[in-house]
Amino acid sequence: MKTIKVVAAIITHNHQIFATQRGYGEFKDGWEFPGGKIEEGETPQEALIREIREELDTEIEVGELIDKLKIRGV
After folding, report:
1. Does the residue 67 lie in any domain?
2. What integer pLDDT is reported at residue 74 of this predicted model?
3. pLDDT of residue 56
């Protein structure tokens, strides 16, 4: 089974949590946290900074890790 490592940002501001709504694909109109795949040679923190810059055209400061999940058979 192929392993794909991804990261997601939980961005908060003034006690609000930012989520994005998908505009395409199987999960169109569903809500998710912004992020994406970790590229070869990247740390999770580097991938998160890159993905947020690409998706939201903004810079972030990466805080503490909240959780790690391993999902099989998806």
Report:
1. no
2. 59
3. 94
pTM of the predicted protein model: 0.81
Q: Residue ranges of the chain with pLDDT lower than 50?
A: none
SS (H, E, C) 2-48: CCCCEEECCEEECCEEECEECCCCCCCCCEECCEEECCCCCCHHHHH
Q: Residue 52: which of 36, 29, 28, 71 has the closest Cα?
A: 36
Q: Does some domain include residue 21?
A: yes
- Parallel/antiparallel/unpaired status of strands 16-18 and 11-13: antiparallel
Asked if 34 and 56 count as a contact pair (C-beta separation under 8 A), the reply is: yes
Q: In this structure, are residues 34 and 20 in contact, taking their beta carbons and an 8 Å threshold?
A: yes
Is 73 contained in some domain? Answer: no
